[in-house]
Every structure is written in structure tokens, then in C-alpha cells.
Amino acid sequence: MRIAVTGGAGYIGSTLMRRLVEGGYTAISIDNLTRGDYTPLRGLEGSMELLVGDIRDLNLLMGVFQDVDAIIHLAAIPGLKACDENPEEAISVNVYGTNQVLRAIVEAGVKRIIFASSAAVYGAPRYLPVDEEHPLKPLNLYGVTKMAGERLVEAYHENYGLDVTILRFGNVYGVGLYTRWDTVIPKFVRQGLRGEPLTIYGDGHSSRDFVHVEDVVEAVILALRHGGGFETYNIGGEPMEVGEIAEIVCEEVEAATGRRVEVTHLPPRIGETKRIEYDITRIREHLNYRPRWGVRRGVRQLIDYALKGGAFEA
Ligand SMILES: NC(=O)c1ccc[n+]([C@@H]2O[C@H](COP(=O)([O-])OP(=O)(O)OC[C@H]3O[C@@H](n4cnc5c(N)ncnc54)[C@H](O)[C@@H]3O)[C@@H](O)[C@H]2O)c1
Hints:
- By secondary structure, this protein is of the alpha/beta class.
- The protein contains 10 helices and 12 strands.
- It has 2 domains: 2-172 and 211-237, NAD(P)-binding Rossmann-like Domain (Rossmann fold, 3-Layer(aba) Sandwich), CATH 3.40.50; 173-208 and 239-278 and 293-307, UDP-galactose 4-epimerase, domain 1.
- The chain has helices at 11-22, 58-64, 80-85, 87-108, 141-160, 184-194, 213-226, 242-257, 281-287, 295-307, and strands at residues 2-6, 26-31, 48-52, 70-73, 112-118, 163-169, 171-173, 198-201, 207-212, 230-235, 238-241, 263-266.
């Protein structure tokens, strides 16, 4: 099977490209390298196509999508902060760009798309754990653009019979490009290893569903193998409060380096959901998805990676 991945140079994309090739797929990435980087895929150029280009370029996409069996659409401006810093680009890439991908899919005769969405579409949960039937009420621009993307793929499913799987990823962590990011787990590990206090926004009781990048990629491949029609799935791993993560990082950094780590609190950030925890029954039952990673193991993996000299700067 020939698979095109948008955003294949990104954090999730580069992990996915590697796994696709290992699974016997022919994989093509298209990425404009604004955030991504093909370095993690160095040495694999012979077994995959790594293209540099923009998803808003319809002609380019139509060429790339010829003879492709499915598109995995990951390219985006991801996260609350990145979208708020550049709202025009966020709307352009996440909404207009998604529409361009869909137009090119129809023109090229591709029948299937997997769309990367986010827990941000739910906003403040009305009940926990959140299942896929929970109302969508995003609290920030990122969530709004992801919701718009979901509506667009749904419209193309209705109008053109496209097979669609929407995957709403939780908070993704694990080694890879993301170790340079400022999201909670790598930020804590970086601060802990530098001997700085871990900075928690708010009281530490806000929670997220943390899912390891290898489990995310597993879910994408399961959806690719078994999905069809129109389906939406939550992709979760282990729900946890930020304060608990800080405790795990303190313990694991101390175990690895012998140094004690302190914690400090900053005011909460506006537009952030306080607590979210996923119900993943649907994907467990439909696709037999079983997350294999927990947060403590993921934190150990990151510390080990950093201590062995892995790139870890923001
Ligand atoms: N990482 C998470 O915790 C998380 C959580 C929920 C959803 N997601 C979604 O998963 C997808 C992948 O996220 P990621 O974490 O790998 O982010 P990422 O920033 O590492 O990857 C996105 C990639 O898209 C590329 N890109 C951006 N604009 C482009 C354009 N106009 N044309 C071509 N390429 C472009 C970037 O260069 C980057 O390589 C995104 O759609 C994101 O919204 C991620």
C-alpha cells in the first residue's frame, strides 16, 4: 500500500514514517519544514520519499497523491500557544490547508483519509471520562481550527464518499523531535536535569490524557488497516494530573542523578482545559487498541535519552 503523510517531518509524523516503512508500506511525506525536520529519518531516504512542500499548494498535492491508497493528514500548526502566536497562519494551514488536502484527494481519486485531531475540540468537559459523543466546544483557536478540520473531512465524506477516520490524540509524549518542545513532560524533565525547579501553571490539579508517541502511531496504523466509512476515535494513554507528573519527574531525576528537585507554581494559563480524561472504549473494541506505555516509563525513557546526550533544548 502507498501512503502519503502530510507533516511527515514532524514529531508524530517522523515516528509514523519509520513505522510505516517497517510495516511494509510505501511512505511519502510532504512537509514544508517550518517546524519539522527530516533529520530523525536520515539514512532511511532510500526506503521512503521525503518531499519538501506546502499543503496549501494544490498542484503539488495532486501530483503527490497520484496512485496513493490513503492520506494521513498530520500537517498543522499544533497547540494553543503556536496558534495564538500566529493566528493567521494557524487558520490558513489548519483550515484552508486541510481543505486543499481534501480537494487534492478528490482530484487524485484517493479514497481514504486519516485526520489528526485533538482533545482541544472538546473544550471544558461536561463529564469524565470524555467519550467521542461528548459535545465539541473548543476554548481556543487551536481547538476551533481542529474542529473545522473535522467538519471539513466529514463534509467530504458526505459529498464524495471518502472513507474517513478522525483520531483525537491526547497529550502526546515520548522521545523524538518533541524533546525540544515546551510541553509539560519534556519541560519538567529538562528543568529537573538542569537542577531548576519544575514550574507548574496553576495548582497542579489540572489533568491531561498522556499518550506515548509509539501508542499514537500504533493507533494510526490500526486505523489504516481496519478503518472505513466514517469513524472518530479518542486516542488516550494514561490520564494524570500535572502535579503527579511533577512528582514522578522529581523521583526519577533523583534516582538517575542523586539530585533533589523542587516544584514551583505560576498563575494558570487562559484558555486551557482544566481536566480531561479519555474514554477509549470505542477504539479498544473496534480496533483492539491497547496503549502499552505509561507516564513513568515514558519519563524514564526521556531521562535516559537526555543523559545519553540526546537533543533536549527548547
Ligand atoms: N503532539 C501532540 O500532543 C498532539 C496532540 C493532539 C493532536 N496533535 C496533532 O497531530 C498532528 C501532528 O502533530 P505533531 O505533534 O507531530 O506536530 P509537529 O509540529 O511536530 O508536526 C506538524 C508538521 O507539519 C508541518 N507543517 C506545518 N505547516 C505545514 C504546511 N503548510 N505544509 C506542509 N507541512 C506543514 C510542520 O513542519 C511539522 O513538521 C497535528 O495535526 C497536531 O494538531 C498533536
